[in-house]
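Internal tracking record. Fields below are filled automatically when a chain is submitted to the structure queue. Please do not edit lines marked as system-generated. If the sequence contains nonstandard residues, flag them in the REMARKS field before resubmitting.
Queue: standard
Priority: normal
Entity type: single polypeptide chain
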Amino acid sequence: MQEEKRKRSVTIFVITLLAALICLALSFIKTSAYNHMKHRELFKGSELFSTSDEPARNVSIKAVPRSSTWTKLFDFNNEGLTENNYQAYTYDFTVSNNTKDEVSAFTFKLTFSEDVYLASAWNGALVIHQNVKGGELVATVPDLREFVPSDYALDIVTVDGESFISMKAGDYLEYIPSSSMNALEVPIKPYEGTTPGIIMYVAIGEDVEDSTIDLEYTFHRLVTREPLFWISVGAMAIWLIALIIFVITSFEIRKYKERHARDNVIINESIETFTGFIDAKDPYTNGHSKRVAIYTRLLAKELGYDGEELDRIYYVALLHDCGKIGVPDNILGKPGRLTDEEFKIIKSHTVRGGEILSRFKSLENAGEGALYHHERYDGKGYPEGKAGEEIPYIARMICVADSFDAMNTNRVYRNRLSKEDIISEIENNKGKQFDPEIAEVMLELLRSGKIAMED
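SYSTEM-GENERATED OUTPUT FOLLOWS
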């Protein structure tokens, strides 16, 4: 039973640990999957060009123009214009991280609603997309502040010796942030932001507030932000505490069992020594007490007893004849028929045994076997004439075991009986001398060979 409990406990520990490890693995898998997921947001109109600081999304972008300070004259058709017709705007594109996670990377695509001319930008690179004569021109400009027109096949205009990239309505640029130590636009820490800027010329009286920005970004979430991680950590902490308690308890139980086993050896040796004195009074019954104790334990095991209860039954059975210590040797070993007085003295060993064992408090019900093992199931036994269920169960088991050993050994007044005669005697006395259920178990032990006659 104890071994089964230990195996069951070990199985529970293994299953619990596996469940915690699976949760831990799932937390890493979920975090990794989340960190590889690309998120997209579209911003336009008032949401994009609003100056409100209220974060509407996990990651937001605002395009806020600074006050315009200068203008230029763009005379594309040489019409002889004399007044400046384009105004420069510096747009700050603030990308804000409104979450507890880090933004590991982002790009945004700015599609223009009006014609504009790009003058400068910082800190990242621009990928220019122009629709020219039914085709598309694409070029990556690492730093617009160091733009050399001759290095790119783009639609470029020059005004007053200064070159501008022409972006018609519908053209777009992709902004790739810089990760250099100077700019360090990515990663964006939780609740922080970065602000790339673009200088562009727009026709006086016009604006770009119908332009759109398509923002794409990824997060870097720490595994500690995943609830499953803390569930698994908590489960493993509980598991570890339980394991420590289990190990300590198992160690203490092991020490207890070892101590208990030593105590049992001492008790067993003490009782066997005592019963040896009793059996030595009659050479024909030498070893009788121990054999009866063994048979009783076999019966008890078949009847469902186990563990310490089996040990208790064994010891009670071992002491069943302790009252014979007070019976004279000449009566115990008398070969002929006993007188009524002698038989009365013999029968008194049950009461003496009960009295002797009444002081044996550490062995529960120690005196029941000694006092009642000669009671009969039909009520014709001694010393009290108890019948059936009135007789303690352990005494009923000892009665069957005691009678079997008496029939299976040579006595001063007769030789041992054959196996067939013993079986016949037990069969005939079921419900009379013996409890029918216990007698049937003894018969099964004999027929199956679990109790061999030569024993």
